[in-house]
C-alpha cells in the first residue's frame, strides 16, 4: 500500500537544547516543517525491567548480561528503567514533551516464555502489559510504533537450535509476529520487523560484544563461534524472517488494519579518507557490506555483487522463489543514523572475518582540517538520498550524534559554535524531506 503524503520523518531526540559554554540556542517544533513527526524510541530489554515477573521467559540478553565482563559495570536489564511498572508515568513524560510517535519493541519472551506455542501457552500477563501500554499511548494522543524483534531471542530457542543460526527460527519468529499483528494490529499502524539486523549479526556473532556473544575463539573472548560465517548465516535468516512476516501481514492483516510495515537498518554513512581510487573503492565496499547486505535483497532480490565476490561460498544464497518474495517486501525502510566515518583501504588483509571481509578500515580519524559542520549535515542528506534512489520510502526511525572526538572528527581547534552549527544542520537540514 502507498505511504501517506505527509512528511514521513521520525527524528530523535524530540527537542534539542545545546548548552556549549555560553552558546545556548533552542531548537523546537517551530523549526521544522509542518507535519514533521517527532518521537522517541526504546527496546524492551533496555527499558522494561521486570525480567523475572509475571511469567516472562529468559532471552539471550538475560543470559549474556549475567556473564562477568560482558556488560560495562556489570549491569543487566532486570530492573532497567522499570517501564513495565511505570509506563503510565513515562507516557505522561512523552506527552509533556509533545511526542507524536513512540517506537518500542515487544519482548518475544514476555509473550512466548517458551519461544513458541509448541513450548507452552502465550503469557496473558505479557499480552495485557502491551495492550495497556498501547491504549495508554493512544489515550494521550501518541501513536504506537511497534518493533517486533530487537535482538532478544528467547533463550530456549537459542538452546534448542541456535536461534538465528538456524532456519528453524523463521517459523517461530513468524508465529510471534503474526500473534502481534492479530493481537495489537487493530491499534498499531506502523510496524518494524527487525531493528538493526546488521548490529545483531555483527556484534552478536562477529565480535561477540552483544548477545549471544559468539565469535571465532582466537579472535575474541568468545566460548564458541565462527566470525567468518555465522554473521552471514544470521543476516540471511533475519532477512528471510522479515520476508515471511511481511508476507503474513500483507496477505492477512494489512487491508483490514490499514497499516504499514518495514525494517529499520543501521545506516551510518562512510566517506573516503582520501580521493585515491583505493579509498573510494574501499568506501563502497563498506557501504555494500554494512548497508547493501540488507538493503539490496529487499530492493533487488539479491546481495550486492561486491559482497558476493568477497564472501563467496560463506554467503548463503537465496532461492529463486525467495529472491522473488523478498524483493519489495517493505512499505518503508527505516534508517537509524548516528554518525559518519572515514574509510581507508586495507586490501592486504587475508584473515577471513566479518570485519576483514570489507578489506577496509572504517572509523579512521578525519583528514586534516575537515569541514565538520558541512560534512556532518551533508552526509545525513547523502544517506537518505542513497536509499531513496533505490527504495523510495524512507523513515528516520532513530538518530543521534556521537560526541567522541574521533566520531565527530573534532580537532583541538573545534569551537562550541562549530559543534552547535553541525548539530543544527544535522537536525534541520539533514532530515527534511517533503
Explain the overall architecture.
This protein is an alpha/beta fold and 434 residues long. It has a single domain (10-428), classed as TIM Barrel, CATH 3.20.20. The chain contains 15 helices and 13 strands. It has an 8-stranded parallel beta sheet. Strand 2 and strand 3 (23-27) form a beta hairpin. Helix 14 (372-391) runs parallel beside helix 15 (416-428). The longest helix is centred in the middle third of the chain and has 24 residues, at 277-300. It starts with 9 loop residues before the first strand and ends in a 6-residue tail after the last helix. Mean pLDDT is 84; it is low at 1-24, 369-374 and 426-434.
Quick synopsis:
This is Beta-glucosidase 13-like isoform X2. The protein has 434 residues and is of the alpha/beta class. 40% of the residues lie in helices and 16% in strands.
SSE topology:
Layout: E1 10-11, E2 16-20, E3 23-27, E4 37-41, H1 44-47, H2 60-65, H3 83-96, E5 101-105, H4 108-111, H5 124-139, E6 143-149, H6 155-161, H7 168-184, E7 190-195, H8 197-205, H9 230-252, H10 254-257, E8 260-266, E9 269-272, H11 277-300, H12 305-311, H13 320-326, E10 332-337, E11 340-345, E12 360-364, H14 372-391, E13 394-399, H15 416-428
Parallel strand pairs: 1-4, 4-5, 5-6, 6-7, 7-8, 8-10, 9-11, 10-13
Antiparallel strand pairs: 2-3, 11-12
Mean pLDDT value? 84
Helix/strand order, N-terminal first: EEEEHHHEHHEHHEHHHEEHHHEEEHEH
Q: Tell me about the biggest sheet?
A: 8 strands, parallel
The residue ranges in which pLDDT falls below 50 over 5 or more consecutive positions are: 1-24, 369-374, 426-434
Beta-strand residue fraction: 15-25%
CATH architecture annotation name: Alpha-Beta Barrel
**Share of helix, binned:** 40-55%
> What is the number of domains?
1
Structural class: alpha/beta
Which descriptor suits the 3D outline? globular
CATH topology: TIM Barrel
Separation of the first and last Cα atoms: 19 Å
CATH level-1 class: Alpha Beta
Rg calculated over all Cα atoms: 21 Å
Strand order, sheet with most strands: 1-4-5-6-7-8-10-13
> How many β-strand runs?
13
Helix run count: 15
Q: Please name the fourth-level CATH homologous superfamily.
A: Glycosidases
Amino acid at each position: 500500500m502507498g505511504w501517506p503524503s505527509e512528511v514521513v520523518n521520525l527524528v530523535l531526540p524530540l527537542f534539542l537544547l545545546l548548552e556549549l559554554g555560553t552558546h545556548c540556542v533552542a531548537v523546537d517544533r517551530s523549526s521544522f516543517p509542518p507535519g514533521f513527526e517527532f518521537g522517541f524510541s526504546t527496546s524492551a530489554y533496555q527499558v522494561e525491567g521486570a525480567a523475572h515477573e509475571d511469567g516472562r521467559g529468559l532471552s539471550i540478553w538475560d543470559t549474556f548480561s549475567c556473564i562477568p565482563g560482558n556488560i560495562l559495570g556489570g549491569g543487566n536489564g532486570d530492573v532497567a528503567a522499570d517501564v513495565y511498572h511505570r509506563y503510565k508515568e513515562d507516557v505522561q513524560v512523552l506527552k509533556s514533551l509533545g511526542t507524536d510517535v513512540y517506537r518500542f519493541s515487544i519482548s518475544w519472551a514476555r509473550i512466548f516464555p517458551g519461544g513458541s506455542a509448541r513450548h507452552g501457552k502465550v503469557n496473558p500477563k505479557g499480552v495485557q502489559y502491551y495492550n495497556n501500554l498501547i491504549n495508554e499511548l493512544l489515550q494521550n494522543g501518541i501513536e504506537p510504533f511497534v518493533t517486533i524483534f530487537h535482538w532478544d531471542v528467547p533463550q530456549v530457542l537459542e538452546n534448542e537450535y541456535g536461534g538465528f543460526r538456524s532456519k528453524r527460527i523463521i517459523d517461530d519468529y513468524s508465529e510471534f509476529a503474526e500473534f502481534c499483528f492479530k493481537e495489537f494490529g487493530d491499534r498499531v499502524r506502523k510496524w518494524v520487523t527487525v531493528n538493526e539486523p546488521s548490529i545483531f549479526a555483527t556484534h552478536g556473532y562477529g565480535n561477540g560484544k552483544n548477545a549471544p556473544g559468539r565469535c571465532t575463539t582466537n579472535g575474541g573472548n568468545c566460548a564458541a563461534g565462527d566470525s567468518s560465517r555465522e554473521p552471514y548465516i544470521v543476516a540471511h535468516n533475519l532477512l528471510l524472517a522479515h520476508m515471511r512476516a511481511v508476507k503474513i501481514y500483507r496477505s492477512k492483516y494489512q487491508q483490514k488494519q490499514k497499516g504499514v510495515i518495514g525494517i529499520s537498518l543501521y545506516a551510518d554513512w562512510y566517506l573516503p579518507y582520501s580521493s585515491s581510487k583505493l579509498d573510494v573503492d574501499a568506501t563502497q565496499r563498506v557501504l555494500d557490506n554494512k548497508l547493501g547486505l540488507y538493503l539490496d535483497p529487499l530492493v533487488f532480490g539479491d546481495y550486492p555483487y561486491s559482497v558476493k565476490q568477497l564472501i563467496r561460498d560463506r554467503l548463503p544464497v537465496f532461492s529463486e522463489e525467495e529472491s522473488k518474495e523478498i524483493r519489495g517486501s517493505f512499505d518503508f525502510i527505516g534508517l537509524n543514523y548516528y554518525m559518519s566515518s572515514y574509510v581507508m583501504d586495507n586490501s592486504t588483509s587475508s584473515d577471513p572475518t566479518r570485519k576483514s571481509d570489507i578489506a577496509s578500515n572504517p572509523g579512521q580519524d578525519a583528514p586534516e582540517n575537515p569541514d565538520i559542520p558541512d560534512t556532518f549535515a551533508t552526509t545525513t542528506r547523502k544517506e537518505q538520498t542513497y536509499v531513496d534512489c533505490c527504495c523510495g520510502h524512507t523513515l528516520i526511525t532513530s538518530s543521534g550524534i556521537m560526541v567522541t572526538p574521533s566520531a565527530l572528527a573534532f580537532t583541538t581547534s573545534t569551537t562550541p559554535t562549530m559543534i552547535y552549527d553541525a548539530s543544527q544542520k544535522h537536525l534541520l537540514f539533514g532530515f527534511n524531506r517533503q
